[in-house]
Amino acid sequence: MRVEGKVAIITGSTYGIGEAIAKLLAKEGAISIVTGRTEDEGRRVVEDIKRSGGRAEYYPLDVTQESRVKEVADAVYGKYGRLDILVNNAGIAGPNKPTHEYTESEWNRVFQVNVTGAFLCTKHVVPYMIRQSSGNIVYISSIYGIIGAPDIPAYHATKASNRVMAKIDALLYAKDNIRVNSVHPGFIWTPLVEDFLSEQSKKSGLSIEALKKELDSRHPIGHIGEPDDIAYGVLYLVSDEAKFVTGSELIIDGGYTST
Ligand code: NAP
User: Fold this and answer.
1) What is the pLDDT of residue 112?
2) Where are the domains of the chain?
3) Once rounded to an integer, what is the mean pLDDT over residues 161-177?
């Protein structure tokens, strides 16, 4: 019960890493506010949590819609009288092609979800955290917020933004007892990576299995990660065990960035 009674909004928790975070926080006593655009998936995650004895609710949310972001923050605070944790997890990869082949609208769309979406959620949650003089925000960045790679350029640029957004907010809100950190996953087996590999498979003719093996080999530990590997890192950061941790970047990548 490391986060007992805490109210946590997890963006993009209808599947993938966000789902694992919502489930683990609920298992550790939090009320998980499951959000995302796919209603049946959101309700499935909530049902799974409830079946295991946890507390959760689903709110439909597209993080690019500011009025809806505000509505959800207001509704959650209105109902529970507190808002302790925000995990800015919602993200998209965008097209996989070189920078000069991107259209402006393709580039902007990735920024709209990964950067502006996270900004809007922080913007509308922070006033409640200031009011209660406590809070915790985690930005899910990536190893590609730290190092470069010759693919999905807009995505990598957004993940670098997420890393610095966490540091800026850590400095801005330290006086309000709000801690803000970023998490930097290596490759994690989720629909995002499955889609990425199936697109690569179509282009290269290689099987998804072969491509997955190649991804495994890039991680010194010998394989890519699972959503729970990231969820445990988030749990630590938002728990009181990390009470002296802010503006920090937690890399969870099987050694990828150490080579
Ligand atoms: P995923 O499997 O594609 O899941 C993405 C989540 O974001 C879904 O719940 C999706 O829900 C939601 N989402 C997408 N667009 C949204 C929008 N406009 N508004 C609200 N929610 C939206 O991706 P993932 O692999 O779990 O990635 C989660 C986060 O981890 C991302 O920020 C990603 O950059 C980061 N990350 C992932 C990896 C990896 O290897 N998987 C590595 C490093 C970092 P709906 O479709 O229902 O809206």
Assistant:
1) 98
2) 7-188+226-258
3) 98
pLDDT for the residue 152: 96
Tell me how far apart the alpha carbons of residues 50 and 34 are, in angstroms, rounded to a whole number.
Answer: 12
Looking at domain 7-188+226-258, its CATH architecture is 3-Layer(aba) Sandwich (3.40)
What pLDDT digit, counting tens, does each position of 133-146 carry? 999 999 999 999 99
- Helix, strand, coil % over all residues of the chain, rounded to 5: 55, 15, 30
Spell out which residues line ligand 1, taking CB within 6 angstroms.
11-18, 36-38, 41, 61-64, 89-92, 113, 117, 140, 142, 185, 187-188, 190-193
Active site residues: 155
Nearest CA to 258 among 221, 232, 208, 224?
221
pTM above 0.90, yes or no: yes
Task: Give the neighbor-by-neighbor strand order of the sheet with 7-10.
Answer: 55-60, 31-36, 7-10, 85-88, 135-140, 178-185, 249-252
Question: In angstroms, what is the span from residue 175 Cα to ligand 1's centroid?
Answer: 31
* Residue listed under structure tokens 């789902």: 19
Give the contacts of 156 (CB within 8 A, at least 6 positions apart).
Answer: 142, 144, 145, 148, 149
CB atoms within 10 A of CB 56: 24
Rounded Cα distance, 52 and 166, in Å: 32
Q: Which residue has the tokens 């959620």?
A: 121
pLDDT grade for 223, boundaries at 50, 70 and 90: very high
Structure tokens at 118: 């996270």
Residue 130, pLDDT score: 98
pLDDT at 118: 99
Query: Predicted confidence band at 2 (pLDDT cuts at 50, 70, 90)?
Result: very high
